[in-house]
Amino acid sequence: MQTTASPPGSGLLRRTRLRQFLRARREQITPEEVGLVNVERRRTPGLRREEVAALAGVGVSWYTWLEQGRDINVSEAIVNAVSNALRLGDTERTYFYRLAGHNPPQPTAGRRWDSEYARMNALVEGWSRNPAYITDRYGRIELASRSARSLFRIEARGDNCVLKFFTEPSTREKYPEADEVGRGLVAQFRSQSARFPEDREFGRIAERLSERSPRFATLWDCHEVVGPNQSRRKIALPRAGVRVFDRVVMSVPESPESLLTLYVARPEAPSAARPREAVGCHAEAA
Question: How confident is the model over 184-190, as a mean pLDDT?
Answer without folding.
Answer: 94
